[in-house]
Amino acid sequence: MSSSLRSLVSLSSIVSGSGGGGGNDNNGVPGEIHVIVGPMFAGKTTALLRRIKSESTDGRNVVMIKSSKDTRYAKDSVVSHDGVKFPCWALPDLSSFEEKFGFDAYAKLDVIGIDEAQFFDDLYDFCCKAAEQDGKTVVVAGLDGDYLRRSFGCVLDVIPLADTVTKLTARCEMCGKRAFFTLRKVGETQTELIGGAEAYMPVCRQHYVNGQAVIGAARTVLETSHSQVQKEIIVVETACVS
Ligand SMILES: [Zn+2]
C-alpha cells in the first residue's frame, strides 16, 4: 500500500470513528451547537429558555450557564425580559464549569444553555470540547454586536462551528419596524456597560443611523460645556490662590 493511500485509509478510520478514539460520554456520538444572536430585547433569552425547558420536558439532562458579570436580575437564575425564570450557574468563565458542576454530573448532561455568551472569552474552546469530545448539545445565546455594531466578545467566532444560527429581531422603539441593532442612550463609551431599557433601545437601521448622529452631537455639546466648566474652575482656583 502506498504511503498516501495508507494515510487516507487511517484518516477514514478516524473520521468514521473506528480508529479506537471514542471515550465520549455519549458513546462517541458528537453533540450539536446552536447559536441565537440578535440585538437587545429580541427575545434571545426567551428563545434559549424555551429550548432548554422543552429539552428538559423530553427527559434530557439540562443546565443553564450565564456570566457572573450580568447581575441585573437574580444571581442564580436566568431571567428573560418578560420575567420567565430558570435556575442557572453564574460563572466568570466556562472552562471552570465542568469542575464546579462536578465531573460525574457533567458526564450525565445532555444539553448546556449559555446565556449572555458575549461575556465569555473561552466560548470557542468550550463549545468545541462540549459538543465534539463530550457529545453535548450546546445552545448559545448572545449579542452579535455591541452598541457600535462591532463584533461583541466571541459570539461570532462560534458561528463556523454551529449546526444552526438564528438571528432574532426586536421592535424599533422609534417606529415599530423590525430592529436589528442596539442603540446606547447614554454617553458612556465602555463596551461592556451592563444595563437594560434605561441605557439601551432596539432600533431599525434608519433610527440607528439617526440616533448615532443625535448622540454624537449631544456628546460634543456636553464635552464643550464640560471643558468650559473646567476652565471656569481653573479661573476660580487661580483667583483663590492670588
Ligand atoms: Zn425605526
TrEMBL record:
<dbReference type="GO" id="GO:0046104">
    <property type="term" value="P:thymidine metabolic process"/>
</dbReference>
<dbReference type="InterPro" id="IPR020633">
    <property type="entry name" value="Thymidine_kinase_CS"/>
</dbReference>
<keyword id="KW-0479">Metal-binding</keyword>
<dbReference type="GO" id="GO:0046872">
    <property type="term" value="F:metal ion binding"/>
</dbReference>
<keyword id="KW-0237">DNA synthesis</keyword>
<dbReference type="GO" id="GO:0042802">
    <property type="term" value="F:identical protein binding"/>
</dbReference>
<dbReference type="GO" id="GO:0005524">
    <property type="term" value="F:ATP binding"/>
</dbReference>
<comment type="pathway">
    <text>Pyrimidine metabolism.</text>
</comment>
<comment type="pathway">
    <text>Purine metabolism.</text>
</comment>
<dbReference type="GO" id="GO:0006950">
    <property type="term" value="P:response to stress"/>
</dbReference>
<dbReference type="Pfam" id="PF00265">
    <property type="entry name" value="TK"/>
</dbReference>
<dbReference type="InterPro" id="IPR001267">
    <property type="entry name" value="Thymidine_kinase"/>
</dbReference>
<dbReference type="InterPro" id="IPR027417">
    <property type="entry name" value="P-loop_NTPase"/>
</dbReference>
<keyword id="KW-0547">Nucleotide-binding</keyword>
<protein>
    <recommendedName>
        <fullName>Thymidine kinase</fullName>
        <ecNumber>2.7.1.21</ecNumber>
    </recommendedName>
</protein>
<keyword id="KW-0418">Kinase</keyword>
<keyword id="KW-0808">Transferase</keyword>
<keyword id="KW-0862">Zinc</keyword>
<dbReference type="GO" id="GO:0071897">
    <property type="term" value="P:DNA biosynthetic process"/>
</dbReference>
<keyword id="KW-0067">ATP-binding</keyword>
<dbReference type="GO" id="GO:0004797">
    <property type="term" value="F:thymidine kinase activity"/>
</dbReference>
<comment type="similarity">
    <text>Belongs to the thymidine kinase family.</text>
</comment>
